Amino acid sequence: MGGCFRRRQGRQENATQRKEETKHGDLVYQWEQRRPACEDVETNVPCAQQAFAVGLASVMGLLSGKKGVVFGVANKRSIAWAIAQAWKEAGAELAFTYQGDRLKENVSQLAETFGEDTLITECDVTQDDHIDRVFNEVGDKFGGKLDLMLHAVAFAPKEALEGTFVATTREAFRVAHDVSAYSLVALTRAAAPLMTEGGSIVAMSYYGAEKVIPHYNVMGVAKAALEASTRYLASDLGEQKIRVNCISAGPVNTLAARGIAGFSSMLKHYEAHAPLKRNVLPEELGATGTFLASDGAAAITGQVLYVDCGYQVMGM
Ligand code: NAP
């Protein structure tokens, strides 16, 4: 991403080096402070527009000719939408799914901006018949070929994301794992036969898979299952040149995230403690998603990539 990061007052500014001649004729180098073009002293967030423009120029064409299917767009704040936009900018042609009529209009409005003939179809990932139908439609749409799949789907009953983990019911545990972890196995099994020239499958995870995050509870356990599934799927499908990876994202303000009790304090905590002293931007997840989908990541599979402004490396 470009070098146009907004900084808080008092932090080090960007600087450039300037050559100067002393009165003895020696050349010395002076550091010259330079204010970034789009500085905003109130935030520590990259200038999204400029960074995105730089990113865009460097990824255009990276995924040209690739066909992909995206699971998990609910609205324009969805991580799936950020990654889908980045994949499209890189040249991919995409199909979208939505869960149930409640989201149909939202997803259609967004996805149709990719072209009137974009495939937009219903898929509840807990329903095997939905999955079979979706991949038949995707195969028909893309001439029997698929290169990319994004899994950005998760769910746990609200009450399971509020109290203690020990209170998790059998049903909440089952539902969370079915929607958030098993679905990757089921979708990958259905996608693989279409990935005749290899492929890249990207799933979204979170640090709660690894460490205890208050209120994340059963979703953390489901994300651990998702990450372990990623490794087993990568092992099974590597010979077919199908790569399976997870992006472990820092917190992003989405519909699903707002269901976690205390989510806004999580955002503040990351901003205070992550090495980069800010939260990740959706377009940065898009850029990582594009990298994982591209040939640049051709030797990367079974991995969990942290895109969290460095939070995961901190011990305290
Ligand atoms: P989001 O916009 O609410 O997306 C979650 C999606 O999952 C929604 O489209 C949701 O549909 C869908 N979904 C739930 N149950 C489903 C089912 N049975 N079948 C099909 N789709 C279903 O939230 P998001 O934050 O972008 O989440 C995307 C992924 O990123 C999730 O895996 C999440 O765990 C992960 N992630 C998020 C964060 C964060 O801070 N936001 C951080 C790390 C990882 P409904 O709205 O109908 O339920």
Walk me through this protein's architecture.
This protein has helices at 48-59, 79-89, 101-111, 128-141, 170-191, 217-237, 255-258, 263-273, 282-293; strands at residues 14-21, 27-34, 67-71, 93-98, 120-122, 148-151, 199-205, 242-249, 304-307. By secondary structure, the chain is α/β, with parallel strands linked by helices. The chain has a seven-stranded parallel beta sheet, sandwiched between helices. The longest helix is centred in the middle third of the chain and has 22 residues, at 170-191. The model is unreliable at 1-49 (pLDDT under 50). It binds NADP nicotinamide-adenine-dinucleotide phosphate (NAP). NADP nicotinamide-adenine-dinucleotide phosphate binds next to helix 2, strand 7 and helix 7.
Helix and strand arrangement:
Blueprint: E1 14-21, E2 27-34, H1 48-59, E3 67-71, H2 79-89, E4 93-98, H3 101-111, E5 120-122, H4 128-141, E6 148-151, H5 170-191, E7 199-205, H6 217-237, E8 242-249, H7 255-258, H8 263-273, H9 282-293, E9 304-307
Parallel strand pairs: 3-4, 3-6, 4-5, 6-7, 7-8, 8-9
Antiparallel strand pairs: 1-2
Helix pairs in contact: 1-9, 2-9, 4-5, 5-6
The structure holds NADP nicotinamide-adenine-dinucleotide phosphate.
Residues 72-74, 78-80, 99-100, 103, 123-126, 152-155, 179, 204-206, 249, 251-252, 254-257 line the site of NADP nicotinamide-adenine-dinucleotide phosphate (NAP).
